[in-house]
Amino acid sequence: AQTVTQSQPEMSVQEAETVTLSCTYDTSENNYYLFWYKQPPSRQMILVIRQEAYKQQNATENRFSVNFQKAAKSFSLKISDSQLGDTAMYFCAFMRAAGNKLTFGGGTRVLVKP
Amino acid sequence: NAGVMQNPRHLVRRRGQEARLRCSPMKGHSHVYWYRQLPEEGLKFMVYLQKENIIDESGMPKERFSAEFPKEGPSILRIQQVVRGDSAAYFCASSPVRSGQGNEQFFGPGTRLTVL
């Protein structure tokens, strides 16, 4: 079974600054996908970024980028130029390439301060 | 194209009653997934359905919980004889094809169930 661990329950960052969220996972699979989801106070789950394990290049989506270290089973999310609208819970998630379900970490609450 | 719709958004039940949660996937999506989020925790997979078939129910509690996705109409997650521990947010997601290969699951806004 796969497990996903987010060791930071809560982080705060000043507007316009950068914050990095950590995520580690455990799997015996070689081919899989990793995701970061954002859950604002509305509770709607929004996909932020996705990484394919067989791709060495780190994924980037505008102000969001990841640092994927396959050997270390680490998948951190960097939010650059933080905005007030980035305030939310952030969940790291794992999916086997041949699977159909997401395994989520416990989440990190991010608070962007003006 | 409307997103995934769930209703009701909030549901209050007394212990022992039944709860029925509905999920209408995005248009053209025939794969539905249910997840449960307990307070201050991440989402936990419950069940994966295609039209008229349960594909993976490895996350479903053995008793009181059932799910269906009929040929016509929404997917239903049914909880019989609810207990206080069932209080949680229940999320539905859908995808146009099987979600393997990293295909995105699109989430609904969730149903918050409160058991008194």
Summarize the structure.
The complex is a heterodimer of chains A (114) and B (116). Helices cover 0% and strands 53% of the residues of chain A. Chain A has 114 residues and is an all-beta fold.
Folded structure, characterized:
Chain A has 114 residues and is mainly beta. In chain A, 0% of the residues lie in helices and 53% in strands. Chain A has no helices and 12 strands. With 116 residues, chain B is mainly beta. Helix content of chain B is 0%, strand content 48%. In chain B, the strands form 2 sheets. In chain B, strands 2, 4, 5, 6, 9, 10 and 11 form a 7-stranded mixed beta sheet that branches. A 4-stranded antiparallel beta sheet of chain B has the order 1-3-8-7, with no helix packed on it. Chain B is globular.
Strand content of chain B: over 45%
Low-confidence stretches of chain A: none
Q: Structural class of the secondary elements of chain B?
A: mainly beta
The major beta sheet of chain A can be summarized as: 6 strands, mixed
Query: What would you report as the Rg of chain B, rounded to the nearest angstrom?
Result: 13 Å
User: What kind of oligomer do you see?
Assistant: heterodimer
Element pattern of chain A in H and E: EEEEEEEEEEEE
- Overall pLDDT metric of chain B: 92
Average predicted confidence as pLDDT of chain A:
94
Instruction: Report the order of strands and helices of chain B.
Output: EEEEEEEEEEE
Which chains have the largest interface?
Answer: A-B, 24 and 28 residues
SS summary, helix count of chain A: 0
